[in-house]
Amino acid sequence: MSDDRVIIVEGGSDKKRLARILVEPVEIICTNGTVSPYRLEELLAPYEEHELFVFVDADEDGEKTRILFRREFPAAIHLYTEKVYREVETTPYKVLATILQGADFKIRPEFLI
Asked: What is the pTM of this model?
């Protein structure tokens, strides 16, 4: 099941935080900020048959990315950090682990304590 799921994040720091929490092998792709529809299509072409999860910051750039995903990939599942943390990168590990676990990802138990 994990082989067919992909998490899309904005930056490398986001990717490292999520990778540290996950037990299962999940492809994590960085958009490196706001992207165009063409760039997004190019970036995700190899993952057409995968279940996409969008986990971007709770800020203006993150919302622009979400809007683009809703239009280009309406089946993508959106994961949200709490607005108080604003960024995936600054969200505490326990909060990230709870969010990912809620989306049925396997989490390292030490992050749920």
From this structure: 0.93
d(CA 63, CA 3): 27
For the stretch 19-60, pLDDT in tens is: 999 999 999 999 987 688 898 999 999 998 999 999 999 998
Tokens of 13: 């720091």
Report yes or no: 79 and 14 within 8 Å, Cβ to Cβ.
no
CA 43 to chain centre: 14
Closest CA to 112 of 1, 103, 54, 99: 99
- Calculate Rg over the CA atoms of the chain: 13
H-run or E-run covering 77? strand 77-80
Say how far apart CA 42 and CA 17 lie, in whole Å.
25
Q: Computed from CA positions of residues 61, 66, 68, 73, in that sequence, does the dihedral angle turn out positive or negative?
A: positive
H or E element that contains 20:
helix 12-21
| Positive or negative torsion for Cα 10, 28, 97, 73 | positive
- Output the six-digit token pair for 55: 């986990």
